[in-house]
Specification:
By secondary structure, chain A is of the alpha+beta class. Chain A is built from 27 helices and 21 strands. The chains are: A alpha+beta, B alpha+beta.
């Protein structure tokens, strides 16, 4: 409407507004002075002259303001004014301001952090080409099976598999263990990611036995200096030479794998190429266009049947699912539960915000009426409140962003493994915006109507404060909801906490105190033959025993609770024969003679291994209680013969001892049948990797460097990795549980705190509303206790209703936690009761404080309150 | 002084037209403009003098008048307003609108 020049002039005037205002004031003064002079000349007395001049002039102040308005930006200036006033008000009520901002910030921060993770893990697409078409097989597969599926399947394209394979990189200052993976099939083609540099390899290169390797971007940066000339260079991995042919882009990973170097399977592990029974690979494929998952499954069922006929001893069923489900399967439910919890916290935070705002607005009713009486329009007052509301939201949001960042970093540091593969997880912008908007909108919805209410009512300045019953009702409902929701969260957290503590006190069966563990692998290049491995291990055993700090040491193939285990099929001389392919599977470990002593595992019967159980002695084995119970219930076990089910010319193993069960798979699972065999009678040639456990003497901790040096004294090219106290290994095994528990507890704590504040706020408000009534009661003879009980009763009513609703909700919600709870039922009475009582006690306390204040009211003052 | 004083409320926008017309006679300060309107209308139009200033600001922002500090005839420091070319054009527009308005009213009144 206005032309550009006019607009520019406005801006110019506005920038000089202070000078302009001053000039207009001077101008007006001069005008009045001149008129006064004229009047004096006309004969009036000086005073009268001035009065007459002023009367003629009008109201200078009003004129000045209107003159200013002629060119000012009215809306903007009032906004600034509102904002400045809002800030002053907020500063003068620090408790309210702090409570509101903190409430908002906590709700926004928690929600954004959790949603960022949920979004990245569950919603964002995997970092491959057209990831929705990628599928994976459940469980682990063998290479021959994968190849057969690839050849026979019509619905699946580029069937490939990988197996994590630690590689010894020699050439740096120390021999180093790098996470690698062996790849069979056209893995890179299946995933569809183009290399950043060079090329990749596939099935054809594998068949031609080309010793090539592809590296990750990270490896390229850290180990090859990001040098483009690195392509074509040789890398010596685990004793074999490979040529580097390609570098993958940053953030590329094989699904569920931390591997950084990728080599062809046939080159890396030729012995296992035809091992149909070696199931240790992660298989995936791409759905051909036009085929569905169910069609692929049907096809796989057929292929499985065909293979079962050809190779009955390795008959298997194959289940296919989307790659995403395979990767996040275990994490999905807990994440969603956590997201639900965060949502509840946001809900409670918003309702708290609303409640606080409503209370505030009511308290300012007087101020609003006065302002309205001296001329402020309705719109103006509403705008004022709106501005304050927005100010609070902005401050809360700013703090919320900080909290969200901190929370996210905290969460990611504790994260379960599955989350790593989704790369850098950062704050999700849309989540942040959503949280901020919801907080602001809630504030507006609940904060403004009370304001309208007051404005519409009588404008008399001196008036008794009406109890706006409608608003009280809303606040009561809010508090009840808060109490209920926080009860749900608290009970859920309580269940998880109890489970976790239960796990912590589970008897392990071994003593992890002061035990250090580390892993080493004997490279096949120098330790191909079994006897070279045995000799080395015996020498190592002796070397470690000679160290002064070491009380005892031992070697085992896999640590308990480390997550990896070796299984084998067994056949029994004394039991009825079982058809091929259906022999029972047991866990199998190779140990040195002192293993059970070092780990303090109790020997129930028989004897331990000794050095006499050498390569030429009769084959012996020790089994655990579960083994004895499963196969020879209530019978003598010592002296029985067993052997590996498949393979040619496998000797019989005589059982010489039975040890106690330990927690080997997971803290919440009891041990499956297990057999231990001595290292000196190495019956499993492919296990070249073992863990050394060292128990320190007395109270001093074992020095890792000492142990490393002892190993390197014998062979200085052996990589030594995963140096961890046994306690750490155990702790690691419950990492995910801990993560869920901590998170849920934090949320529950937040919700509880917010709900308590909410209860306090509402009761305090109700008391202030009833101040006159209380004064009357006291005047009529009520005792302090009567008033106390009056208020307490109101609070307890709210709490009870909220608690009942919360209990119902908790029954429902806890059934969702079924998979995460251990050792106690999902409706564990103790937890429910404890949490309920705690909530009621704190709630009662929150009610007590304002109740006490009410009971001490001076009746005279109370009666005089408006 | 006239016996019958006209209502102080002018038709909206008329004040600005009157100011512009006054200024065609030459630059003037606020007080002077007020005096001129009062005298020339033979006291019929008793404008609240203060209301000149918002009007003058509006005119200034729209670029129809320009102002600068100077000295009044009585020796006081005053801001003198001057009509601009754009102002003159605007005055012409408003004057002719006003004419048409008056003519219309007169016709209606004339048929009574």
């Amino acid at each position: 409407m206005e032309s550009l020049s006019v607009f520019l002039r406005r801006i110019w005037f506005f920038l000089n507004s202070r000078k302009r205002d001053r000039e207009i004031r001077q101008e007006i003064e001069q005008h009045v002075a001149e008129k006064t002079d004229a009047n004096v000349e006309a004969g009036m007395a000086p005073d009268e002259a001035r009065f007459a001049a002023l009367r003629q002039f009008g109201n200078p102040t009003l004129q000045r303001e209107q003159a200013h308005e002629a060119w000012g930006f009215a809306w903007f200036e009032t906004l600034l004014q509102d904002a400045r006033y809002g800030f002053r008000i907020l500063r003068r009520n620090p408790a309210f301001t702090l409570a509101t901002i903190t409430t908002l910030a906590l709700g926004i921060g928690a929600n954004t952090a959790v949603f960022s993770i949920v979004n990245a893990v569950l919603l964002k697409s995997l970092p491959y080409a057209e990831p929705s078409q990628l599928v994976a097989l459940r469980g682990s597969q063998s290479l021959p099976d994968t190849i057969d599926i690839s050849e026979q399947s019509k619905s699946l394209d580029s069937v490939a598999a990988y197996a994590d394979w630690p590689l010894d990189l020699v050439g740096g200052p120390e021999p180093e263990r790098v996470d690698g993976a062996m790849i069979g099939g056209d893995m890179f083609r299946a995933l569809g990611t183009t290399p950043a540099l060079g090329r990749t390899f596939g099935e054809s290169e594998d068949r031609r036995l080309e010793p090539v390797v592809v590296a990750s971007y990270g490896f390229w940066q850290t180990h090859l200096g990001g040098n483009r000339e690195a392509i074509g260079k040789p890398l010596q991995l685990s004793g074999k030479d490979y040529t580097l042919v390609g570098i993958m882009p940053p953030e590329f990973q094989l699904p569920n794998s931390k591997s950084q170097l990728w080599i062809p399977f046939r080159v890396a592990y030729p012995e296992a190429v035809d091992a149909r029974g070696a199931h240790f690979m992660f298989a995936l494929a791409r759905l051909r266009p036009g085929y569905t998952l169910s069609q692929a499954q049907a096809e796989l069922d057929q292929i499985g049947a065909v293979l079962a006929k050809l190779h009955p001893e390795e008959a298997r069923t194959f289940k296919v699912l989307s790659l995403r489900d395979r990767v996040v399967g275990t994490v999905k439910t807990p994440l969603l539960i956590l997201f639900g919890a965060a949502g509840l916290v946001l809900l409670i935070a918003c309702s708290n915000f609303a409640s606080l705002l409503m209370a505030r607005t009511v308290a300012r009713a007087q101020e609003m009426r006065i302002r309205s009486a001296i001329g402020a329009g309705q719109l103006r007052l509403v705008r004022q409140l709106l501005t304050e509301c927005v100010l609070l939201s902005i401050l809360g949001a700013a703090l919320g962003i900080i909290i969200a960042q901190v929370a996210l970093r905290l969460l990611l540091s504790m994260k379960p493994e599955e989350v790593t593969m989704f790369g850098q997880i950062s704050l999700d912008r849309s989540a942040l915006v959503f949280a901020i908007l919801s907080a602001t909108v809630t504030g507006l919805i609940f904060g403004l109507p009370p304001a309208f209410e007051f404005l519409r009512s009588s404008r008399k300045v001196v008036e008794t404060t009406q109890v706006v019953v409608g608003r009280t009702g809303v606040r009561k409902i809010l508090v009840i909801a808060q109490v209920g929701l926080s009860l749900i969260l608290l009970i859920s957290a309580g269940l998880l906490i109890r489970s976790f503590w239960g796990l912590q006190s589970v008897p392990l069966g071994f003593d992890p105190e002061n035990v250090l563990t580390l892993r080493m692998t004997l490279p096949s290049a120098r330790y191909a033959a079994i006897d070279t491995q045995e000799k080395f291990l015996v020498r190592l055993d002796n070397e470690l025993k000679s160290l002064p700090d070491v009380q005892s040491s031992a070697i085992i193939t896999e640590l308990p609770l480390s997550g990896s285990r070796m299984m084998h099929n067994m056949s029994f001389r004394d039991l009825p024969p079982v058809p091929e392919g259906q022999e029972p599977e047991v866990y199998a470990h190779e140990v040195s003679p002192d293993y059970f002593t070092t780990m303090r595992i109790h020997l129930n019967s028989g004897r331990q291994f000794t050095l006499q159980d050498g390569p030429s002695a009769p084959r012996v084995g020790i089994v655990n209680q579960a083994f004895a119970q499963r196969f020879f219930p209530n019978q003598k076990v010592i002296g029985r013969d067993v052997r590996w089910a498949r393979g040619k010319d496998v000797p019989w193993i005589t059982i010489v001892g039975v040890v106690q069960d330990i927690r080997a798979e997971a803290l919440d699972e009891s041990q499956e049948p297990t057999i231990y065999t001595p290292f000196t009678q190495k019956l499993m040639p492919w296990t070249r990797s073992q863990v050394v456990v060292i128990r320190g003497r007395g109270g001093s901790a074992v020095d890792a460097n000492e142990i490393r040096n002892a190993i390197w004294k014998l062979d200085n090219q052996l990589p030594v990795t995963d140096v961890l106290p046994l306690h750490a290994v155990i702790s690691e095994s419950v990492k995910e549980r801990r993560f869920n528990m901590v998170l849920l507890t934090i949320f529950a704590g937040l919700a509880f705190a917010l709900a308590s504040i909410g209860v306090y706020g509402v009761i305090a408000y109700l008391v202030s509303q009833r101040t006159r009534e209380i004064g009357v009661r006291v005047a009529l003879g009520a005792q302090r206790f009567d008033i106390l009980w009056l208020v307490l009763r109101q609070g307890l009513q709210l709490l009870t209703v909220g608690a009942v609703l919360g209990l119902c909700g908790a029954f429902f919600a806890s059934s969702l936690l079924r998979d995460m709870v251990y050792g106690i039922g999902v409706t564990d009475k103790a937890t429910f009761l404890f949490v309920l009582v705690a909530l009621l006690v704190v709630g009662a306390l929150a009610t007590y404080i304002p109740a006490r204040r009410a009971s001490r009211l001076d009746p005279m003052a109370a009666l005089r309150v408006e | 002084m006239s016996d019958q004083k006209v209502q102080r409320e002018l038709l909206p926008g008329t004040l600005e037209m009157l100011i512009l017309k006054t200024l065609t006679r030459g630059p003037q300060h606020g007080y002077g403009i007020a005096q001129h309107i009062q005298q020339t209308s033979e006291d019929v139009l008793q404008v609240e003098e203060g209301s000149l200033y918002p009007a003058l600001q509006r005119l200034e922002v729209k670029g129809w008048v320009a102002a600068e500090w100077g000295v009044s005839p009585t020796g006081r420091r005053a801001r003198n307003y001057k009509i601009t070319a754009a102002g003159r054009k605007q005055l012409g527009l408003e004057a002719s609108n006003f004419e048409r308005l008056i003519t219309g009213i007169a016709r209606v009144m004339g048929t009574a």
